[in-house]
Amino acid sequence: MAATSDRPSPATTRRKAGRHRGEGQWAVGHFTPLNGNEQFKKDDDGLNVRTRIETVYAKTGFASIDPNDLRGRMRWWGLYTQRKPGIDGGKTAVLEPEELEDEYFMLRVRVDGGRLSVAQLRAIGEVSQEYARGTADITDRQNIQLHWVRIEDVPAIWRKLESVGLSTTEACGDCPRVIIGSPVAGIAADEIIDGSPAIAEIERRFIGSKEFSNLPRKFKTAISGSPVQDVVHEINDVAFVGVEHPEHGPGFDLWVGGGLSTNPRLGERLGAWVPLAEVPDAWAGVVGIFRDYGYRRLRNRARLKFLMADWGPEKFRQVLEDEYLKRKLIDGPAPAEPSSRWRDHIGVHRQKDGRFYVGFAPRVGRVDGATLVKVAELAAAHGSDRLNTTVEQKMIILDVAEEQVEPLVAGLEALDFQVRPSPFRRGTMACTGIEFCKLAIVETKGRGAALIDELERRMPDFEEPITINLNGCPNACARIQTADIGLKGQLVLDEDGNQVEGYQVHLGGALGLQAGFGRKVRGLKVTAAELPDYVERVLTNFQEQREVGERFAT
Ligand code: SF4
Asked: ipTM value of the model?
């Protein structure tokens, strides 16, 4: 549960002091690499692989790639090998990585703050068509991912992306990943503060810098000054959340140590108010603590949330002030309840300058290169040069004049991008799943899209905000623990005792002031075939039994 008072919440379960000594923390002298990942990072910085890709691997081909580059350092440039087609989910845990992987890559394009120009979106669409078989997925961290990329084409892809100011630098790997930001920063009429200058400054100073290119594991950042709290700040390693300080005015409340995956944990407030100009330094201090004190011995304990669980917010703040910032932070208030139950900005909204932004919903983030080019052209034809991705796998076109709104809406809907979607289209997300992901056990994207269609047909009058998130494995790429209905992919038994694709059900997760993780419904697993029936039953029961004003999560 997130703290609501002005001071940090008391620590929940802190482990005994002394446990840290053998955790592989650099700050206490543990520089000897304790696992294979730490060893390859010590042998050569992940960022250095770019030169080898450009000068060697792109010419000599997939088979020539050093395994430590292939399955390690190439992530620092947004490249993962994708799953070989036709391998079923039952083999995921038993095959070696080289047996699961294809000679093609997923390439993640970093979109900090979700901000794209028309030229940038068009370039991604063209790269997708030319080098990625037309694939493109909007992720729930505002990135865009392409598949079927050949190593031979990577230098040309980088040239094209970089010519419009995009990059894949540190899009994956043990480093600061994309900084998610409010997709309506700077334009929303109800904004507390615009965090985008801080995002740009962090990018300029620290992304691609060797100061933070060897962290214990990935590091996730969220910055938003929107009262909607539209960046899932509760589950990021560090988050800056817009608040109005009674004496100092608008600034940011600092949260640390959130994360999902197999040990989910909500971030905690440090009780500190940070002015916009000081966000980059405060960010660098938190990342510095993670680099120096983070646990490197075991990969599954290497995220910042484990250090935070042991230290608690008081100690974390003290180390940040004393050792990194060399000054005291200002005490500050907690953010209020999010101002809207939908946090995605779908629909037509007036900007503070009198123009409009238009949020629209693809199905489960799946688009394609040709369509992205059409969206870019549509935005330009209606007078916009700015589009944003959202953390709900959706998109927004900004700066639309009033008379252009309805023609733009019609153009989007002609591409099957709904501006006034059903709650099912709006609230359903899916991770990559078995189509491309080497860790997957089940299919997700196609099933999520089919579930939307089926629920729209069966429940046309359902109007409640609802989130339905599908994961292809026990990881948490689609945030199942924070969904109203979270579906964790696994193999299950059908009525006849056959092993088939299905899902473990989690119910009642939420973010915001009532944040909490969905409860795993004991023994409740549904086969993929039963999924629409099951979800319809749950939603019908909710409609019939809820009290006035009751949310699904309560
Ligand atoms: Fe892959 Fe699992 Fe993440 Fe889905 S949740 S993208 S299957 S690792």
From this structure: 0.99
